Cyclin-dependent kinase 2 homolog
Amino acid sequence: LKPGNILLDGDGRVVLCDFGLARASGEDKECIPPITREVATRWYQSPEILLGTEIQTSSCDIWAAACILCEMYRGQPLIAGQTEIQQLFLLYKRFGGSPLVVPRKDRPTDFLGDDLRYWPAAMLLPDYGKIPFARNAVESEQSWSVRLAADIPRLPPAALPMLAGAFRYDPRLRYTHARQMLESEFFDSCRGSIATALADYLRDSEAKPPPPVDDPWEDSFDSECSFFHQPN
């Protein structure tokens, strides 16, 4: 996923396009082509892709979707490295440091809290440890969520718990389905009759599409576009 592959029509419907590098998923791993570094634009790549994984799961797309959401509120990409090494450095700096392959003794349940870095299997990836970064260059005394909120003042506080599930380093702990993000409090404002009618329509191809209604999100779309394209 990247912004250039997300289309929006005049009625506010979102469509994904360009599946040229899509990968099938299934139990027969031998039938799945190995992932390459070209999959996903660098700015939206998850940590496992940057560290050389050959296995892509839906959690990679969740990471990219979270990057795009932050970009919508920030007005510019969240992590914009010019090289793969710089991308990894900026990612670590954004979220508090390199992967934690063992729990910290002072906080043995770090991986369940605000720290996103717990990822024991990271040491098994091809490029793990090849480029060590100085701890004082990537770590911060402030939590990632505090720094993210300061960097993106327009980001609603309700988005932070959802982003915590989407930005975990370990793909097994990260969200794997869009439904997990949609269940977040962040989306409460757009639930109701419209969402229910749309959900029924998506589940049943014979159901009637929801009628057009006045949508507060649609009303603010033009102003959001204007804000996003403000000159620097």
User: Anything to note?
Assistant: The CA atoms of residues 79 and 91 lie 6 Å apart.
